[in-house]
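Sequence only, no structure available. Ideas?
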Amino acid sequence: MATTDAERPGFLLPLLLLAGFRALIDDLHAELARQGHTELRPLHGFVLQAVGPDGTTAGELGQRLGVSKQAAGKTVDRLVALGYLERADDPRDARRKLVRMTDRGYDGLRRSAVVFDQLRQRWVATLGAERVAAIEDDLRAVTPANWFRLDVPGWFGA
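Reply:
I predicted one. C-alpha cells follow.
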C-alpha cells in the first residue's frame, strides 16, 4: 500500500536523510574498528579531510571546520596523541607550526574510502543499482554545487 503525502510530514525527510547518514557512518566506524582504527570518530574524518595532503595550521583548520582555533587545537592534540596527525615546522614560515597527516592518518582515509564503496554496494544489494543511482542523482539536483563542506562540525555545534 502506497504512503500518501499526508502521511509524509515535512520534518520526516531531514530525519530520514540523517538516519541514512548515521547508518552509513556507524557502519563505517564499526568496520574501521575491526581493521585497527578503534579510536577514529566521525569528527576525525572531517578533520583529516580538512588537514589535507599539504597540512595546515590550527587556525586555518578551525576556519575550515567552522570551529574556534582552540577547539581545532584540542582535536589536533587528540589526533596527534592517537598517531593520526603530527605537528611540524612550516618550511615557508618558521613562526608557524603545521599540522600534517601521518601514515596512520592516510591509512584511515584510504580504508574509509574502500569501506564507503562497500557500504554503497550493500545499499545496491538492498535497493538495486538503479534506485541508489536515482537517490544520488536526486540529491545532487536539490543540493548546492558546493555540497561537500568541511564546516559540518561547526555547523552542528552552532
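Helices lie at 12-34, 42-51, 58-65, 69-81, 103-127, 129-142, 152-157.
Hope that gets you unstuck.
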